Amino acid sequence: MSNYLKKWGSISGSAKLKILRAGMVLLFLKAGLTVLSFSTFRRLFYRFSRSERYNEMTAEEIEENVWAVNTAANVLPIELLCLPRALATKYLLRHVPALSLEIGVEINPAKAFEAHAWVEKEGEIIIGDWSDSVSYQRLWVWE
After folding, report:
1. How confident is the model at residue 1 (pLDDT cuts 50, 70, 90)?
2. How are strands ordered across the β-sheet holding 136-142?
3. Of 23, 43, 90, 143, which has the maximum CB count within 10 A?
4. How many percent of the chain have pLDDT more than 90?
5. Which residue has better confidence, 108 or 44?
6. 98 in the Ramachandran plot: left (φ > 0), alpha (ψ -120 to 50) or beta?
7. Burial level of 133, CB count in 10 A (0-12/13-18/19+)?
8. Residue 38, exposed/middle/buried by CB under 10 A (0-12, 13-18, 19+)?
9. Long-range contacts of 14-21 (CB under 8 A, 24+ apart)
């Protein structure tokens, strides 16, 4: 625990705020995914995450938000896999144009079914990247 406190003390105030905000969004999304039907969750997520104003962010600002999501997800005492992380990133970056949440499955008959979610900006994966040994076939794009 003291290791976390040392790390917490060493980061900037703005980074702390980003981690706290990302943590709250992750918890809210995990609760919604747990208690709501997916169609209801999707409708509510769309309502809260849509934006009519767009604001381009630098690659560094996007990376800071992704870092905050991953850091919060790794510290929180619940399992937060790819879908909540991708949804949180999509929500936190909702004013960034050309951002899509992708959901796919691994095409490998020798393995069990495996799904994955990631977020792309103009074809570049910003969260949810995977190793070269895995390939996912897109099933659904959530703009």
Report:
1. low
2. 124-127, 115-121, 99-106, 136-142
3. 90
4. 62
5. 44
6. left
7. exposed
8. exposed
9. 15/64, 15/68, 18/64, 18/65, 18/67, 18/68, 19/68, 19/71, 19/72, 19/75, 20/72, 21/68, 21/92
SS (H, E, C) 32-101: HHHHCCHHHHHHHHHHHHCCCCCCCCCHHHHHHHHHHHHHHHHHCCCCCCHHHHHHHHHHHCCCCCCEEE
Under 8 Å between Cβ of 22 and 87: no
What does pLDDT average to over the chain? 89
pTM to 2 decimal places: 0.88
Percent of the chain past pLDDT 70, that is, above it, reads: 97
